[in-house]
Amino acid sequence: MNESILRSFNALPDSLGPFLRFFSEGINTWPVRVALGLFLLALVYKPGATRRAGVQSLIAFLIANGITDLFKHLTPELRPCAELANVATHGIGCNPHSMGTASAHAANMAAVAFVFVYQLGWFGSPWILIALITGVSRVYVAAHYPYQVLLGYLCGIAAAALVTMGWRRIGSKWQKSAPQPNEA
């Protein structure tokens, strides 16, 4: 079933190629990195929930990426482009020595989406769509099987939940230990 789903996504029309390739590999280009860096700076500059969303999403992104790297190291699995015959990489290429156990792309975007929705409510919901498209794009270019994308989403959600709950816990402890104004 996993291979069947992969082949269905892999056979999507070539007209979707540029769009899906962007979501699959855009983060590897300098213009996208600069744009995301400026976006993060803008978030951090604004106080309140927006700042928390920016800082927490960056932390969750890094943790999610680390978790997927750990999966790839401890339980290495080949990418479909290296394992299956007759799959198209749609111009991305395939490194047969790179493991695809859990999709870091999917994990990272799921982590950001979780934090943004948690902190910003519906204003963060476009990131859910970005995470979904990123996952589809990784299957489209045969970099990951669908279950590897789902595992990536779970890693990202777990990382983001850890960060947001940890942040809230630490914040409540700081508030309790902070000196209270004298009410005399």
Quick description:
By secondary structure, the chain is mostly helical. The protein has helices spanning about 1-10, 15-25, 30-45, 50-75, 80-85, 105-120, 125-140, 145-175. About 35% of the residues are buried.
Structure class: mainly alpha
Compressed to H and E, one letter per element, the order equals HHHHHHHH
Number of domains: 1
How far apart lie the N and C ends? Answer: 70 Å
Question: Which range best describes the helical content: under 10%, 10-25%, 25-40%, 40-55%, 55-70% or over 70%?
Answer: 55-70%
DSSP, total strands: 0
Beta-strand portion reads under 5%
Mean pLDDT: 91
Query: What would you report as the Rg, rounded to the nearest angstrom?
Result: 19 Å
Please mark out the parts with pLDDT under 50 across 5 or more consecutive residues, or reply none: none
Q: Give the biggest sheet.
A: none
Describe this structure as you would to a colleague.
- With 184 residues, the chain is mainly alpha-helical.
- It has one domain (2-165).
- It has eight helices and no strands.
- The chain is elongated, with a radius of gyration of 19 Å.
- The model has no long low-confidence stretch (mean pLDDT 91).
Write the layout of secondary structure elements.
Layout: H1 2-10, H2 17-25, H3 30-45, H4 49-74, H5 80-83, H6 104-120, H7 126-140, H8 146-177
Provide key terms for this protein.
184 residues, mainly alpha
